[in-house]
Structure formats: structure tokens, C-alpha cells
């Protein structure tokens, strides 16, 4: 069990060292005011004039030149090398929702590791903000108001089944797996609802649907997956 470094009843913004579009950080902070940096993400925050409330990671990407400008009590070193800094930050933040910026784009291996962490910590809701999409681990049920034609993709990170309403190609009957059928490039016919039979399914919806996704995750109607054993 990880001891929380940040424990709050409000959503949290988590910033990484990947690509951050103009306005991405402000967009997240308008919805989640507490700012946490995953290691080198603090450099991106400082470059935009923001001092994180906490910096979490192994600190191997934080030069001493910049470290001296950060209050020592805000630096939280997690020295193990078996996980990414995104993983370290996610599992040490207790919040109803995390909004992540700076974790998409750039290196593909970093993105894949981030998706892996989303699935490994499915009990910790996190929405990644990309240039055109919002990406998150699908909760047990998702309801979202979309307009006809909106692209909706689901990608299995484990064998999983689901059923849907409001998608042009229904998900029912599809035995999805990373090395089998997937559910990308689907389209909404209007409001959608998706129920997953188990964890392991990533969802990708238009960035413009971000506020609807946030509302759903903060709704008492949104269930949560249990934490993985071990």
C-alpha cells in the first residue's frame, strides 16, 4: 500500500515532461487547481510560471540548477527504478480525479508506459489531455453526451468484452484483446454509454468532450475498479 504524498478531495493536475500544447496546462488547472509534477514535469511547470505543490519521482531528470529553486518540502523522491515517474506520481496521489498533461506525444515508448500505468492503477481515475483527444481507462460504465460523428475509440490492454449504446458499430459480442479485435475509429450516433465487463480498456474521445468526461468521473453514478492485488 502506497502512502499518499498528495491527498485531497479535489481533482489534481499532473504535469509530465512530454509534449504540452499551448494552453494545455491552463486548461487543466482551471478544472483541477492542485498541481503535481512528475519529475521533469516540474521544468515544464516552471517554464510557464507555475510552482508545483509537489514534485514526485526518482529525480534523475531534475538538474541541480533547477532543483535549488524548488522548496525542499515540495520534493518527494521515490527512489525505486522499476516504474516510470508517471506511475510513481499516480500511485502516490489520492484524489477523485487526475488530469494529466505532458504525457502524450513525443516518444512512443513513454506513451505506452503511461497507458500501462493507467491500466495497472485503474482504481485511480486519470484523464490524459492530448492535442485532439482525451484518453482514460474506461470505468465500469461511461455515459457521455456526444454529437453524431464524434470519433470514439476503445483499445484493449487486456482481454476484455464490453457493450455499448450510441456507437455506429456496437461493442457487444466483440472479444477484444491487444493481439485480437480492437475498437478504434468508431463513431458516436449521439449520446453514448459503454459498459466494460472488466478493467483493461482504454477510451479515447474528442478533446472537446473533456468536461463531460470530468463530470462523469466526479458523478456518484461513476463506479470504480478495485485496486489490483500487490
UniProtKB/TrEMBL annotation:
<dbReference type="InterPro" id="IPR053149">
    <property type="entry name" value="TPK"/>
</dbReference>
<dbReference type="InterPro" id="IPR036371">
    <property type="entry name" value="TPK_B1-bd_sf"/>
</dbReference>
<keyword id="KW-0808">Transferase</keyword>
<dbReference type="InterPro" id="IPR036759">
    <property type="entry name" value="TPK_catalytic_sf"/>
</dbReference>
<feature type="domain" description="Thiamin pyrophosphokinase catalytic">
    <location>
        <begin position="28"/>
        <end position="122"/>
    </location>
</feature>
<keyword id="KW-0067">ATP-binding</keyword>
<keyword id="KW-0418">Kinase</keyword>
<dbReference type="GO" id="GO:0004788">
    <property type="term" value="F:thiamine diphosphokinase activity"/>
</dbReference>
<dbReference type="InterPro" id="IPR007373">
    <property type="entry name" value="Thiamin_PyroPKinase_B1-bd"/>
</dbReference>
<dbReference type="Pfam" id="PF04263">
    <property type="entry name" value="TPK_catalytic"/>
</dbReference>
<dbReference type="InterPro" id="IPR007371">
    <property type="entry name" value="TPK_catalytic"/>
</dbReference>
<keyword id="KW-0547">Nucleotide-binding</keyword>
<dbReference type="InterPro" id="IPR006282">
    <property type="entry name" value="Thi_PPkinase"/>
</dbReference>
<dbReference type="Pfam" id="PF04265">
    <property type="entry name" value="TPK_B1_binding"/>
</dbReference>
<protein>
    <recommendedName>
        <fullName>Thiamine diphosphokinase</fullName>
        <ecNumber>2.7.6.2</ecNumber>
    </recommendedName>
</protein>
<feature type="domain" description="Thiamin pyrophosphokinase thiamin-binding">
    <location>
        <begin position="148"/>
        <end position="189"/>
    </location>
</feature>
Amino acid at each position: 500500500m502506497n502512502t499518499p504524498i498528495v491527498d485531497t478531495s479535489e481533482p489534481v493536475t499532473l504535469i509530465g515532461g512530454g509534449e504540452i500544447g499551448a494552453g494545455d496546462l491552463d486548461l487543466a488547472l482551471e478544472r483541477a487547481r492542485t498541481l503535481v509534477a512528475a519529475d521533469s514535469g516540474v521544468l515544464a511547470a516552471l517554464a510557464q510560471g507555475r510552482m508545483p505543490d509537489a514534485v514526485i519521482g526518482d529525480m534523475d531528470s531534475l538538474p541541480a540548477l533547477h532543483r535549488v529553486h524548488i522548496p525542499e518540502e515540495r520534493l518527494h523522491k521515490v527512489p525505486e527504478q522499476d516504474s516510470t515517474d508517471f506511475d510513481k506520481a499516480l500511485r502516490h496521489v489520492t484524489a477523485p480525479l487526475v488530469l494529466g498533461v505532458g504525457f502524450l506525444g513525443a516518444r512512443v515508448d513513454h506513451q505506452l508506459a503511461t497507458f500501462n500505468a493507467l491500466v495497472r492503477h485503474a482504481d485511480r481515475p486519470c484523464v490524459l489531455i492530448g492535442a485532439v483527444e482525451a484518453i482514460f481507462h474506461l470505468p465500469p460504465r461511461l455515459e457521455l453526451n456526444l454529437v453524431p460523428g464524434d470519433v470514439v475509440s476503445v483499445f484493449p490492454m487486456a482481454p476484455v468484452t464490453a457493450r455499448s449504446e450510441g456507437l455506429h458499430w456496437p461493442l457487444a459480442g466483440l472479444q477484444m484483446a491487444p493481439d485480437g479485435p480492437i475498437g478504434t475509429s468508431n463513431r458516436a450516433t449521439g449520446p453514448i454509454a459503454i459498459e466494460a465487463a472488466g478493467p483493461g480498456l482504454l477510451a479515447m474521445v474528442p478533446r472537446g468532450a473533456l468536461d463531460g468526461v470530468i463530470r462523469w468521473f466526479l458523478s456518484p453514478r461513476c463506479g470504480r475498479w478495485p485496486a489490483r492485488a500487490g
